[in-house]
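Entry for the shared binder. Reason: the reviewer on the internal report wants the predicted structure included alongside the sequence.
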Amino acid sequence: MTAHLNRLATGPQHRPRPTGCDQAGRRPRRPRADCAAAVAATPEEHDARALAGRFARQLVEVLTGVRPSGQLMRHTTLDGYGQLASLVRVGALRRGGPADRPRLGPVHDRSPSPGAVEACVRVDLGRRHHMVAFRLERRGPAGQWRCTAVEAR
């Protein structure tokens, strides 16, 4: 009992601050992996992300019937164009009415390997919501970006 009273009389015990903490004893927050990758992105990766955003817009225009699919033929591989043509044929992104214009959400992309970008985007068509995913890869002797796979739900 007297030890407890002695502790109260002398004030709080000084505990050494753990290493890596600020003045208030809080540990600093670690940046998310996505944020760290965005900061360290090379100019080539930045261009690929901008390309993914532009390609998503054109892809949605083809899937909704605003643009003919032949306009994307030179930007796709044979397998990618086959997938795109079958999605157009079954009407994967049907518009609810003539006034429904597709609204695209932010394009989420990642680079699983150098020379490849996988991206997805949410598409709002009136009361319906769809997801479109695609993969872009560097192909050919010139290293041109081409769409190798497309999915829409």
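Summary line for the report: The chain is about 35% helix and 25% strand.
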